[in-house]
Write a structure and sequence with these properties.
- Helices cover 22% and strands 30% of the residues.
- By secondary structure, it is of the alpha/beta class.
- The protein has a six-stranded parallel β-sheet with strand order 10-9-8-7-11-12, with helices on both faces.
- It is globular and about 50 Å long.
């Protein structure tokens, strides 16, 4: 069953409640598929961590003429029954001792939120720096939540980066991958988890190795070409 909260004019937070007899098993960063009629499916990253999965949280961006998202933002009622499949995806957090950087573009924040909550609520906690890239402040649809989360977890640094607005107090201007390099010109000791549009991921795959990042330390979820993985139905 679904419950919805409008986070921004084009972003819906959706909470899915599983049947009482079912339990969701997944890793921070993975996603689920919503199964539609005609064999079609829509993929959404899980924004909740495994230790708080009583309600499965996803962030859905409205897509023009998208059949499912038009229903989600329109006539779909709270409590509607949906068929889902999880866990899916090879993008998943695993603890190591390297300095941690997380990067999101747009609704790529969803799997990063799952990782952040896992790291700081379940542990072991570690120093981490999160960069969130968006066009404008309005697109940072959980900025207030993040700042409150940061206050509760001082090991976390948060840098919002706006491509279409000038720099302001607490906000940087430009492309999010460039902001990472301004803060960390040497990435040779870091591990990076990134989620967002393909253009953002490709920019990091080109620029970050030049700054010393090892190929196996850029772990990413590109929303258009995330690799498939074995899945079990729920």
């Amino acid at each position: 069953r679904a419950r919805r909260v409008l986070l921004a004019p084009d972003v819906m937070q959706v909470f899915l409640r599983l049947p009482a007899t079912e339990h969701a098993s997944f890793q921070p960063g993975q996603y689920l598929d919503i199964l539609l009629d005609g064999g079609k499916r829509r993929s959404f990253s899980l924004a909740c961590p495994p230790h708080d999965a009583r309600l499965l949280e996803i962030h859905a961006r409205r897509v023009a003429h998208g059949r499912f998202t038009e229903q989600l933002f329109g006539q779909m009622r709270d409590g509607a029954l949906l068929r889902i499949e999880l866990p899916i995806g090879q993008f998943a957090y695993r603890h190591d001792d390297a300095p941690l950087i997380l990067v999101a573009g747009g609704t790529g924040f969803a799997p990063i939120k799952s990782i952040l909550r896992h790291v700081f609520e379940k542990g072991p906690a570690r120093d981490a720096h999160f960069f969130w890239g968006a066009r404008s402040r309005a697109d940072l649809y959980q900025d207030a939540w993040l700042r409150e989360f940061q206050r509760a977890h001082p090991q976390l640094r948060y840098t919002p980066v706006l491509s279409d607005e000038a720099a302001a107090d607490g906000y940087e201007h430009g492309w999010v991958h460039a902001a990472v390099l301004r803060h960390y010109p040497d990435l040779s000791k870091h591990v990076i988890y990134a989620a967002g549009p393909p253009q953002m991921i490709e920019a990091m795959r080109v620029a970050f190795p030049v700054a010393g990042l090892a190929a196996d330390r850029l772990r990413f979820d590109s929303f258009d070409y995330a690799p498939p993985a074995a899945a079990s139905a729920v």
